[in-house]
Design a protein that fits this description.
The chain has 98 residues and is an all-alpha fold. It is built from 6 helices and no strands. The N and C termini lie far apart (65 Å).
Length: 98
Amino acid sequence: MEEAINKLRQHESADKSRWRDEANFRRENKSWLRHSQFIAMLMLDKMDELGLTQKSLASQMNVSPQYIGKILKGHENLSLETLAQIEDILHINILVPA
């Protein structure tokens, strides 16, 4: 039994698991994350329709392709300036007056 435990300990990760931190982050930020995911889906649909790549959108927005990737994952808290820029380039309505 002790031999099995030692083998398990040899294979355990030295890094602490971050699943709890990530779960807490999602719970604490679920309101804006839901909106971010919705925006990401709108963007992906429109990019497909226009034949735009992440790289070409990044170039038009003067940001890195990595930043576009973060936006399209739906985990980015976007500024009003960024939202307006996305609307202008993709010709979509994100910010709708009440």
